[in-house]
Design goal:
heterodimer, A: alpha+beta, Heat Shock Protein 90, five-stranded antiparallel sheet, 5 strands, B: 289 residues, alpha/beta, Globin-like, Transcription Regulator spoIIAA, 11 helices, 68% helix, binds adenosine-5'-diphosphate, binds magnesium ion, RsbR protein (chain B), oxygen binding (chain B), Bact_StressResp_Reg (chain B)
Amino acid sequence: MDFQSCVNIKKEWDIVGARQLGRDISKKIGFGTVDQARIATAISELARNIYLYAGTGKVCFETIENLNEKGLRIIAIDEGPGIRDVTQVMEDGFSTSGGLGAGLPGVKRLMDEFDVISRQGEGTEVNVVKWLR
Amino acid sequence: METNLKEIVLNNSDDIVRMWLEEIEKNRKHDYTSTISDELFESTNREFVNVIFSSLEKKGLTNDIEGFAERLINLGWPLSYLTDGMQAFRRVTINYILSQSTKVDTDYFSEILSKVDEWVDPIINQLVNEYSGSWENIVSLQKVALQELSAPLIPVMENITVMPLIGTIDTERAKQIMENLLDGVIKHHSEVVLIDITGVPVVDTMVAHHIIQAAEAVRLIGSTCILVGIRPEIAQTIVNLGIDLSKFPTKSSLRKGFESALEITNRQIVELEGQHKDIEELIDSLDGE
Ligand SMILES: Nc1ncnc2c1ncn2[C@@H]1O[C@H](COP(=O)(O)OP(=O)(O)O)[C@@H](O)[C@H]1O
Ligand SMILES: [Mg+2]
């Protein structure tokens, strides 16, 4: 836990801003093209969910540097309506907006660690990590 | 009282202009105008201060301000030159009036401040409005230009059309892609449309969803949509996301997509053998030399 920076999500184009910052950081950490694309896509999903379902929130980045491993932690936080049933949204194809419903389960597969904490009426926090291999 | 203050300023315009020019010159060293030639800077300052005084004399806004601002906008001078200049005018004028007054009580002082504000603020407002109007104009023109670029459709040959997508796809653009695609397919009687996503930086579920819907719509009006230009890393993320593109024809490159399009429209590329030989002979004869 070395360095943290956030992008506020308020309008649709902020998603692109978050993606760009995430890509820059992952490039610096040393991720290859495929992992950079995975990370950018995951950020896109999380930021878009904030924009669509919570209205506003933020996406934060943290470089992880331990003795024997390096990685990137991404935290997407909002104070929106929250998710009623977390198990349900982790099923492929579940969407309340007519979307593909592949966002959250997709992010879980794109990243190495995945964690959602959500309370109805209080907000949602999605915490994911990608390790450099 | 009111006319008094204004008279002080107008009757001593030479002094005030001199002080103002000094102030402007002083600020110049460390700012944006340092690259502008001395003559241009001086003549612009003169013009600026004339505009201010003519607005004072005429008790209000004039076309001079508009014309002056327009010229500076075209020359690319920053707005801060004008706002800094107006603030300098405010300071100089207040100082000058104070220096000319024998007795200064609080009432008189606040009278001066509010009078000078009354002269300066409308000019600042008009200048800012001129500038922001021109920015809004530029932004809206660029928006139109971007929209025109956002989903182009190219009829490369009879019945085959290509839509090359470059850059980020947001909701607005996704809508345009769909509209242009359907309009274009009908207009050009395309049997096959190739959507090339080589230039799309990120394909997330939203983008994939829109592309799937567009391809489905194209299928419903009787044509075939082939997705091409899927870079290897994008192919991987699509698979990770669990998006099923198996229902749609996809090809890695535009070239391969075009070959399938030819097949679908019962055509093929034939190399002209004769010409080939000629070239080979030519090369052979060159080699011999
Ligand atoms: N930040 C969030 N706040 C509230 N609800 C959310 C949030 N993120 C996701 N959801 C809910 O989870 C569902 C599934 O999300 P996702 O997997 O990204 O698919 P999609 O966005 O296509 O619906 C959404 O339809 C929405 O109801
Ligand atoms: Mg989503």
